[in-house]
Write a structure and sequence with these properties.
alpha/beta; 287 residues; 12 strands; five-stranded parallel beta sheet; three-stranded mixed beta sheet; 9 helices
């Protein structure tokens, strides 16, 4: 049976900028099935023999009959998006396995079966190039939000090439990926504001779907915006965490503590940060 190369993309950039979310979106667009999304955290595969978890143990070894997590998943669902998250943390021995997939669209399992990846979309994500080792082994920033995206992209791509060619001595892996390296920019203030507004609006819509008509007063929204966007170092993930701390959690407590009733209208008049953020929740209808 002839196999063809697996389509692939290498997503690089800072944390919290949407690399994993893009992989999920690709899954939805290609297959319309959430179960077609298969993710592997490659920090769990840093040991030399951890490749056996992916493809299965060879004959005579414990777990031989179980098979590998990756080969089993593709055999059961060949139309999938397979995400290898933080690929730089994987042991180089595992990276060699990807050569078979990227070259021929096929991988031989520990049991000797040929598993075909020609219908799967392979996604690698990486933080390579965001930090580089300092003189004493510490991490120092290679790129910063103060630099233009053109500079960020050039530096990140340069560090990715250096890592595969000089650190891993595996330039052939990068050659197989080719021009499919996409560098993400930092979450900058303009985009951060859009992310914030979308998150808050989606949250209020979800609350409304539960039967509670809750709105957010303009001044309170701006206080919340300041709290959520004060630190963008963790990107969209950091914004989500702040929305949860300063809106979702206090709103849930207020609705519960006040005995709020479904089908009534409420307005968040104020947000008060502290060790535990509180809100002023006002009923817009008389009892």
């Amino acid at each position: 049976m002839a196999a063809r190369r697996s389509p692939n993309v290498f997503l690089a950039g800072p944390t919290g900028v949407g690399k994993t979310e893009l992989a999920k979106t690709i899954t939805s667009l290609l297959f319309g099935d959430e179960s077609a999304y298969i993710r592997f955290d490659m920090s769990e595969f840093s040991a030399e023999h951890s490749d056996q978890r992916l493809i299965g143990a060879p004959p005579g070894y414990i777990g031989y009959d179980v098979g590998g997590e990756l080969t089993n998943a593709i055999r059961e669902k060949p139309f999938s998006v397979v995400l290898f998250d933080e690929i730089e943390k994987a042991h180089p021995r595992i990276l060699d396995k990807f050569l078979q997939v990227l070259d021929d669209g096929v991988l031989t399992s520990g049991r000797g079966d040929r598993v075909y990846f020609s219908e799967a979309f392979i996604v690698f994500t990486s933080n390579l190039g965001i930090y580089v080792p300092g003189p004493s082994g510490e991490r120092i920033a290679n790129v910063t939000p103060e630099e233009t995206f053109e500079v960020v992209r050039r530096k990140v791509r340069g560090e990715i090439e250096r890592h595969f060619k000089q650190v891993l001595n595996r330039p052939e892996i990068l050659n197989r990926i080719g021009e499919n390296v996409i560098v993400f920019d930092f979450i900058r203030p303009e985009i951060a504001n859009e992310i914030f507004d979308q998150m808050v609006d989606n949250l209020l819509n979800e609350v409304n779907s539960l039967g509670y008509d809750v709105t957010l007063a303009g001044p309170a929204r701006e206080v919340l915006r300041g709290l959520c966007l004060s630190d963008l170092s963790n990107g969209g993930r950091g914004i989500r965490n702040q929305v949860e701390s300063h809106l979702i959690n206090p709103l849930s407590r207020s609705l519960f503590d006040s005995g709020a009733e479904a089908a009534r209208r409420y307005r968040i008049e104020g947000i008060h940060p502290g060790p535990s953020t509180t809100i002023d929740l006002v009923s817009e209808q008389p009892p």
